[in-house]
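Hello again, I could really use a second opinion on something today. My current little project is about how a certain protein chain folds up. You're getting the sequence in one-letter code plus the fold written as tokens. Here's the protein in full, and shout if anything looks odd to you:
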Amino acid sequence: MTGSDDRSELAGRDNDSSPGPARVAGAADLDIASSAWELERIPAAFAVARGPAHTLVRANGAFRQLMRGVDLAVGGPLADALRSRGLGDLLAVLDRAMRTGAVERDCRIDGPGPAAERWRCTIWPQVDDCGSTVQLLIELRTAAPSETTLALQREVAERMLLRALRDRDVAESADAARSRERLLATEGRRLSASLDEGTTLQAITGLSLLQSGTWCVVDILEPGGEMRRLAIMHRHPTKQLLLRKLHDRWHPRPGDPFGIPAAIANATATPIRGDCIAAPTVADHDAETLRVLRSVDAGPFLTVPLMIGDRLLGALTFVGDAAGGAFRPEDAELAEALAIRAAMALDNARLHGESIELRVRADSANQAKSAFLGTMSHELRTPLNAIGGYVDLIDMGLRGPVTDAQHIDLGRIRSNQRHLTTLVTDLLNFARIDGGRLSYHFADFVLQARLVAGLEMVEPLAREKALVVEDLACDAGILVHADPEKVTQIIVNLLSNAIKFTPAGGRLSIRCATAERAALLRVTDTGIGISSDKLASIFEPFVQVRSGLAGRDSGVGLGLTISRDMARAMGGDLTVESEPGDGSTFTLNLPLARQREAAGHSL
């Protein structure tokens, strides 16, 4: 910048002016190229830099004094010198002025060093006719103490204000979160308070968001697929009276952009948003519906489906006030959380209702079955008893002479008649137990006496198969508290079962003892045994060991079922231990009589 070519006007753009070259007032009118000493005489710190690297063209003594420690070489890149001395703030202002061509006024700059003084910088760009920035006139000055103090005060005030605003936002966010949690906890308890479906649906109709003026529309999808508008609820009594007019006329229809039609069309749990009045299909409803919606200031809506897995149960539509603005993301999150709780409560209520209905049906079926078995048993016992009576009359010769062969045949008839009578008696007892109509008469008695009575009844069966009772041990002092007749029946069933499944020539063992306030009667045989997978099922009705279901020659499979049920009804139990091919041990457990509870006998 020498000779006449260095004479030029410095032009620039102020930050507040319109784009385009303009003359710069004040220092911009200096004739920079007139002479170097004129710049030196200016008491303010001035420099001239050119180009993107801010090549130093001129710098007066005041500028060099202020920038002491910075390598200021005329013709050298000022940008590198500033960067090396940590004067990035000043470099950023220079870059911005060069890029925009706009005047930078009184920019605050930190000087170099840890105890740097504060500067003020003003830059006037020189812009050519094409609008490009050619060079920059730079003024630096030390900020006055009052300016520094004011700047620090302003900075501290700004930080305090920002912190206060952040603290307020955090507090408001925490308050909103607590309010949402309280609402969810309250509504969750209310929704789960009952398993009755009607009560649960009533609870769902009372749901609302925290946003003031919000009201709720509840749509339900019936099990058959029919859409039904369950309720329209507003917390404001006057507006609720207006909305009540819509209960019989505003129904969900295919194509509606909200409610369950929209939930069906959407097929996801994603919230659906829109404006209630502006929705296209609302206008398709009658004029009265539209008038009521406007009278309650219906505005934005938010629909959240009621879903369990992929199953749609219904939809909640929250409608806001027209002047309240759109629903916020946190409103949608709260609505989804409420919908999840409502869907779970409704599904639980429906499952509970279905279980009650199934139980009622099962009870009805059991009662019908028990009634049928009881009736049939009574009907069958009458002719069977008659058959037995006539067989006895003939066998006694009261109807005329009977040959030896006829006596044998009559014995066979009598045996089958008794077998059928036993089967019918089992059916009758099972029907009575299943229907809760079997009565018990408790008393204290000697267990050994009941065992002897049972053995006498099955002795012919054991003798027929040549079975040997090799161990019979039952203390005559063991007293039990139960129904004597029922205990005898259980013992006969256990002995008959052991004889039935023990091959000819086998052995039986019967032992009694006491343990922990109970009398134990164990019947052990050397029969076919029972596999481990059948041990539990043998106590089920109509089940036999050999073929799964009762065989033709082995009864109806009710003996063990009846025996265990009667034992449990008397405060005891019936259990089994067995291995295939190694026989079985059935243990009858009965409560001891009170005066004998303290006695103990080892097995």
Q: What stands out?
A: Residues 3-143 form a domain with the Beta-Lactamase fold (CATH 3.30.450.20). Confidence is low (pLDDT under 50) at residues 1-35, 547-553, 596-603.
